[in-house]
Amino acid sequence: MKIGKTILYMLIAAGLLGGGAYIINQNQKKTHQKTAIIASRNASVPVNITTVDFEHLNIDYSSNGIFAPWQSLSLSSEISGRIVRVLAKEGDFVRVGQTLATIKKEALEVDYSNASATYQNAVADNQRYENAYKTGGVTKQQLDQSRLQLKNAKNALEQAHIKVGDTNVKASISGYINKKYIEPGSMVSPGASLFDIVNVSQLKLQVSVNEREVSTLKIGDQVKVKASVYPDKDFYGRVSFIAPLANSSLNFPVEISVDNNANHLLRAGMYGTAVFSRKDTGVQHAYMVIPKDAFVNGVSSNKVFVVQKDNSVKLTSVVSGRVFGDKIEIISGLNSGDRVVISGQINLNDGTLVSIIK
Question: Would you name any one GO CC term (predicted)?
């Protein structure tokens, strides 16, 4: 009987010891988990930073565009008729007033002769009516009708004269024949295209600039010009036009006139770049800039991590401006002296603690 009680007591003691060990083991696991959580919360992420400051920059603001001819004209026919002669071909240089083609004019000359005769008769008739009216031989209404017929006859004569003159197709600008649409024997009607003429003694580089840049430009400013086909050669031109109204993209069209040298290296339709250069030296012209790498998920996000006094980071929205190489202008959102993360952002969230490498 005593042996049975002893065994019972031993089993109870073993159970108590086992249960206690289990509880202790579970408590230790919970303690380790809490410690790991606290440690993870207190762990800092290594990052590189830069300090926000103002910088004086050599600014080369560039804008791409296309070279256009200084003058461009599509010469059209004023009358109907058959082309008799074509006196210019594609590639020819022509001067203003030069005859380029002739249109058959025999029928028009007959019309002119008839109109001239009609006009002379109207002059004579009107003179008789004027004299007769003075003596009471005709009424005022009859005299007015005679004057109207004279006016109409004169207009018809002038129109016939113009049509005869229009049979000689003449260049209205100096330049090169870029396109010829007719051959001898071609039939043309009013408005039909005859020649395209371009004046490339000067070219216009047509670009667009934003509202900030356009405020710094004025007519006559010298501008360096680059052509994509001549990357190592610099050309120079002057601002010849600044649009008073922005386009749909809120940019302002600007034209730079460029003298084309005797070799005509530049051609209309080529791609070009206008480089608007100036140097800011005054404090009032300094720019707050940060590296492109500071932006989270690219410059377009307009978000950066700013390191706080306790070495936590705050995701901050900024307003960015112009691009200066690998630096971006900051218009608002940051202050001089702010510390901004430039590498390691992928591991950061708002409030993450960081350790600064440099």
Answer: efflux pump complex
Q: Does the CA dihedral 76-78-81-87 come out positive or negative?
A: negative
Same domain assignment for residues 150 and 211:
no
Let me know if residue 52 belongs to a domain: no
Considering its fold, how many domains does the chain have in total?
4
Nearest Cα to 87, choosing from 103, 99, 73? 99
Q: How far apart are CA 309 and CA 278, in angstroms?
A: 38
Boundaries of domain holding 219: 62-68+198-279
Q: Each residue's pLDDT tens digit in the chain (358 positions)?
A: 445 555 555 555 455 445 544 554 555 555 445 434 444 455 789 999 999 999 887 667 788 899 999 999 999 998 888 898 899 999 999 999 999 998 876 666 667 678 887 888 889 889 988 898 888 888 899 989 989 998 998 898 888 777 765 678 999 999 999 999 999 999 999 999 999 999 999 999 999 998 888 888 999 999 999 998 998 999 999 999 999 999 988 889 999 999 987 678 899 999 999 998 765 544 446 789 999 999 999 888 999 999 999 999 999 999 988 777 788 889 899 999 999 999 999 999 999 999 998 7
Q: What is the CATH number of the domain that holds 166?
A: 1.10.287.470
Q: What's the rounded Cα separation, in Å, for the pair 28 and 273?
A: 71
Kindly state whether residues 166 and 93 are assigned to the same domain.
yes
DSSP-assigned beta bridge partners for residue 290: 328
Question: Does residue 45 lie within any of the structural domains?
Answer: no
